[in-house]
DNA sequence: TACACTATGTATAACCT
DNA sequence: TAGGTTATACATAGTGT
């Protein structure tokens, strides 16, 4: 999406990488929000930037509730 | 995105909701993957469908590692 | 350094099979 | 019901300020 087709590999230029991170993180959170509302599902999204800053999204329920729901699954139902 | 502008609210028709869920879940996971690679960041994504089925994504690290990183944050750094 | 713009690539709603 | 197609809306890479 954008002026040019982008290869999916690490962006080496630090400034470009940070700008892309900021834009795409916002886009990802928006998409997660839309999925949770449109389809009425629980979504939890955790992002750590390379500087260690945390970004979170969760739908109606809190992050903690959704993580607990995951953690409490029997191990054989956690695989992807 | 699509033939018509979509309101962001729960899709009432069950079939449509499931179709949209399947398509958008795939799109969301793809975007999460791209963010993790392009920007070299940790992303964890947990989705429970309305029937309780689990979808997961995480980048290089395992979901468990990323969740642990979140859970181990001091409480005052967990806010969104 | 951070926003705003816009040309272009991408995701997807409705349709089709 | 699931998978493929396509017209259209949306996200965003590069750019400008």
UniProtKB/TrEMBL annotation, chains A, B:
Its main location: nucleus. GO terms for molecular function: protein dimerization activity; RNA polymerase II transcription regulatory region sequence-specific DNA binding. Signal peptide: none annotated. Keywords: DNA-binding, Nucleus, Transcription, Transcription regulation. GO terms for cellular component: nucleus. It comes from the Eukaryota. One of its GO terms (biological process) is positive regulation of transcription by RNA polymerase II. PROSITE patterns: MADS_BOX_1, MADS_BOX_2. InterPro entries: MADS-box/MEF2_TF, MEF2-like_N, TF_MADSbox, TF_MADSbox_sf. It is found in: Nucleus. The keyword Transcription regulation applies. Residues 1-61 form the MADS-box domain. The keyword DNA-binding applies. This is MADS-box domain-containing protein.
């Amino acid at each position: 999406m954008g002026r040019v087709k982008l290869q999916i590999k690490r962006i080496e230029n630090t400034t470009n990488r940070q700008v892309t991170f900021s834009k795409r993180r916002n886009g990802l959170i928006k998409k997660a929000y839309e999925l949770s509302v449109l389809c009425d599902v629980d979504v939890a999204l955790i992002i750590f930037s390379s500087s260690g800053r945390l970004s979170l999204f969760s739908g109606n329920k809190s992050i903690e509730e959704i993580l607990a729901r995951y953690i409490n699954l029997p191990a054989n139902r956690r695989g992807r």
